[in-house]
Write a structure and sequence with these properties.
Helix content is 32%, strand content 27%. By secondary structure, it is an alpha+beta fold.
């Protein structure tokens, strides 16, 4: 099987790692990829949001499957262009990807499908914003209605901060979604969908704040772990029954079937499971830990979803091990990340048994003599260090052992990823 993977982050590196280990995969290509993905796949330069380019490359490669990783290409309609070229693609159409591309649209779909979620108001003026903040009260939840790379949400008890965030979105020409606050821990559950059927993966939890103890600004995610020993029994089946399947059914009813990953961001509230948000792709950094535990070869499952055959797929197999990922962020992240600094120690980190390192914001410096030298930072979240071990305590110990072997000037990471969950199980 020849596969073209679209994207360039740690999520795509995790996908590339899983796909490269599938015996059915004979050739793996990536557009544009990153230096880590380049160790597993043939890289191709180009704009990942250019549907015509992606479709042409997939055709030229004779690809059997295209896997679209990030949300921006999906909302831009890349999957539509690939499907129009007659090539199976794992990723929703532009219309279906609006479950992530517009939070107000997602709320509309959830209402039609009777999916439990927070009450909300969509605001297009400062007066509406002020009224919604007063209606729901603190803590205030203020979201950019459109794509914001995981950083468009503010949750705060400070009304001035909430108002400032909403005003900035409106000033940029966007609209704002203000929601009722949901109490309880959050859980991420990825559901593979083929337009009709739903196959859930294992749940994970991520850490969105930049500093320990959930302090500091919201980021795209500073770490994650799986499994969740504290999750209630039957959680996955409950989410499939009451959230994922009704949403997929509603999208099909509208004539815009959802094919790809429905990322269910959930809050386990005192009143039951509630949807915090939908995404239309694998989440980052949760993908890094979920795929580290998946034992079923990935390529055939994704192809089955792309071809509407998920109902034929046998039950997925999972490792009993735990996985923890810790994100190493660049100096100044998230406000003003500094890039171009040398990175060393990845090979040393991966010499630790049970550790692998996934590239997110990396590049090869322009004066590199060869592909194995001159690795530098090229983004805010630079690396995801993954530890896999027998239990959360072992997995997080391995992840942090890997982190300590990596050097990037001024970089920072959270020291408490999965700590509470590991301590709770002893």
């Amino acid at each position: 099987m020849i596969i073209l993977l679209v994207g360039s982050g740690a999520r795509e590196h995790a996908l590339a790692r899983a796909l490269s280990r599938d015996p059915a995969v004979t050739a793996l290509h990536a557009l544009p990829g990153n230096p880590g993905i380049g160790q597993l796949a043939t890289l191709h330069a180009g704009d990942a949001t250019d549907g015509a380019l992606v479709a042409r490359l997939a055709t030229d490669l004779g690809a059997d499957l295209v896997v679209v990783g990030p949300e921006a290409p999906l909302v831009a309609g890349v999957a539509d262009a690939v499907r129009a070229a007659g090539i199976p693609v794992f990723g929703p159409s532009h219309e279906a990807a609006m479950l992530e591309g517009s939070k107000s649209f997602a709320k509309e779909v959830m209402a039609a499908a009777n999916v439990p979620t927070a009450a909300s108001r969509t605001c297009t003026s400062i007066d509406q914003l002020a009224a919604a903040l007063k209606e729901f009260g603190a803590p205030h939840v203020v979201k950019d209605d459109g794509l914001a790379a995981g950083k468009g949400v503010v949750v705060t008890s400070d009304r001035t901060e909430a108002l400032r965030h909403g005003e900035a979105i409106l000033a940029a020409g966007g609209s704002v979604v203000v929601e009722d606050y949901l109490d309880g821990p959050e859980v991420s559950l990825f559901c593979l969908c083929d337009g009709t059927s739903v196959v859930p993966l294992q749940p994970a939890q991520d850490f969105k704040r930049v500093h320990d103890h959930d302090d500091g600004p919201n980021t795209g995610g500073m770490g994650a772990y799986s499994p969740l020993p504290w999750a209630p029994p039957g959680l996955v089946a409950d989410v499939v029954q009451h959230v994922a399947q009704p949403t997929v059914d509603e999208m099909a009813r509208r004539g815009t079937p959802f094919v790809g990953v429905l990322y269910c961001g959930l809050a386990l509230t005192s009143k039951g499971v509630r949807v915090v948000e939908f995404n239309a792709r694998f989440g980052d950094p949760e993908t890094q830990v979920v795929l580290a535990r998946l034992e079923t070869p990935l390529a055939g499952v994704l192809l089955a979803a792309a071809e509407g055959r998920l109902a034929e797929v046998p039950a997925l197999r999972w490792s009993d091990n735990s996985a923890v990922t810790v994100v190493i962020a660049s100096n100044g992240y998230p406000e003003a990340p500094i890039t171009g600094d040398p990175i060393t120690g990845i090979d040393a980190a991966e010499q630790v048994d049970g550790v692998h390192v996934l590239h997110a914001g990396t590049a090869l410096s322009a004066n590199s003599a060869d592909a194995g030298a001159g690795l530098v930072s090229a983004g805010g979240r630079v690396l995801s260090v993954v530890g896999v071990g027998a239990g959360l305590a072992a997995a997080r110990g391995l992840a942090y052992a890997g982190v300590e072997r990596i050097s990037l000037a001024g970089s920072h990471f959270r020291s408490d990823i999965a700590q509470k969950a590991a301590e709770a199980v002893g």
